[in-house]
Amino acid sequence: xxxxxxxxxxxxxxxxxxxxxxxxxxxxxxxxxxxxxxxxxxxxxxxxxxxxxxxxxxxxxxxxxxxxxxxxxxxxxxxxxxxxxxxxxxxxxxxxxxxxxxxxxxxxxxxxxxxxxxxxxxxxxxxxxxxxxxxxxxxxxxxxxxxxxxxxxxxxxxxxxxxxxxxxxxxxxxxxxxxxxxxxxxxxxxxxxxxxxxxxxxxxxxxxxxxxxxxxxxxxxxxxxxxxxxxxxxxxxxxxxxxxxxxxxxxxxxxxxxxxxxxxxxxxxxxxxxxxxxxxxxxxxxxxxxxxxxxxxxxxxxxxxxxxxxxxxxxxxxxxxxxxxxxxxxxxxxxxxxxxxxxxxxxxxxxxxxxxxxxxxxxxxxxxxxxxxxxxxxxxxxxxxxxxxxxxxxxxxxxxxxxx
Length: 404
Known about the structure:
Elements: H1 5-16, H2 23-29, E1 33-34, E2 40-46, H3 55-58, H4 63-78, E3 82-86, H5 100-113, E4 118-121, H6 133-140, H7 162-165, E5 170-175, E6 183-190, H8 213-230, E7 236-240, H9 245-252, E8 274-276, E9 283-285, H10 290-299, E10 303-306, E11 315-318, E12 332-336, E13 351-358, E14 367-373, E15 378-384
Helix pairs in contact: 1-8, 8-10
């Protein structure tokens, strides 16, 4: 990939935000991906893998081995261009610091075997007093494929302590299928934090569970700079572990139906900005994710993908006023992933969200998405376009997605 004016701008930007990429190497190895020759980009999203839980945590034997099976089955069915690990890779409250890297090695093994690019966000279970998301990110940054090429984009682009700004805040450029130097879209990754401050010899101190205002400012400024450089708005997707409050408002106010927004709806949404008591039994929403929601609206991302809630996997179009949220979502699509890991609560069949974007449909803000289950079946296949939310789809048969 040659060093165009835009790419040279990215070099300066990466250097300015403190990435570990050395400027002299960026012109050849700047972390980005490209639409395939057929004009498509296929992304598999694994969420809530929860590696490292002892058997007594959920009463399941060989949970990590079974989760690797899920990943292999999904990847063999989908053959994606890229994989996103969207939070709660590890149940770090059960993990000693010296054991974390070996768990990461297990998680990425199916991806390394296939030489798949990897981007991760961190979730509330990835941060504990025995696990540092910063150290996790630095270890993941070194991952290479069997072909010797660098695979991982996971990094920290916003200065500050991880308990203040998080770790997995960065973007990945996506270049045109016909021109490897032409920016076609952006993939944004955010750390919604939560969990505990890393201090192995200390006590448990909770961390706020929303995207920090400093990250929001970075998001706005970086997007403005990129837009100014290319001369137009850039289509984009966003990935963040804990969903924004608009999803709970939609659910509580009767916006979701089984035919317009097919998928599992088996629990109440747990959203960013909840402040809970010491037992986690009583939580109140404090509105702290409002700046992040407003930024998503103003920038106009095509869709936002979240995990965290294991019994939910529908998508919604935020196109009207919702209680306690910014005035209007302007048609942003908000989607939940399928719980992928055998660690963590619930016993619905595991799987992953699949996203397919066609380059020639970027101007229409349109994409296809579905859940690929561990047994190979597809659930909740929808088209996120201007009429999503009004279109009717077959309801998901929950009886076929339960693991006894």
